Every structure is written in structure tokens, then in C-alpha cells.
Amino acid sequence: MSGYLDSTNDKGNSRQYAECDRHSFQRIAMRDKIVGMWAASLFGYKGDDAVRYATEVVFSDLEEPGDNDIIRKLMIDFDYHGIPVTRQEIETQLLNAEAAVDKKSS
Length: 106
Prior knowledge:
single chain, mainly alpha, Major Prion Protein
């Protein structure tokens, strides 16, 4: 009998973890889009070009765990556009965007 209950609890826990992962992914994607739009505005992108760039930024954050992949992309893109930016400035933008997402969802 406990085998059935354990199995049922495992399925419930799996759903709960999947929901947490989905929520976390959505939060990070929204954060990345905000930062992408910030960078796009500094690059002079507008409208569809800005949205397209922000989407690239979101997808760049899927390459590896953590923020190194998105930071690397942004550093390369800022360098390409001749705009000096430090890693710390990008990290600050990521933190500010995450706080904005958290504030909006609460």
C-alpha cells in the first residue's frame, strides 16, 4: 500500500517541481527581455528590430546554466556597437530587471 502512496506523492512532487521550473523560466525570460530591450535602445534599435534583438538575448541565456552566457552576448554586442559597458553594469541591469519582474508578479 505504501508503494502506491509513494508513487502518488512522487507524481505530485514532480508536477510541483515542474510548475516551479516553468515559473522560474518565465521570470528569467521576462528579465532577459527587459535587459534585451534596454540594450536594443542603446544600440538605436526600434520597433520590430528591438523586439527581435531582445528575443535573441532571451535565447542566448539558454546556452548554459547561470548568467555567463547572456552577459557574454551582451558584452560582445556592446563592443560591436562601440559602446563601453562593464560586466558589473550588465549585472546591475539584470538585477534591476529581475526586481521589476518580481514586483510586477506580486
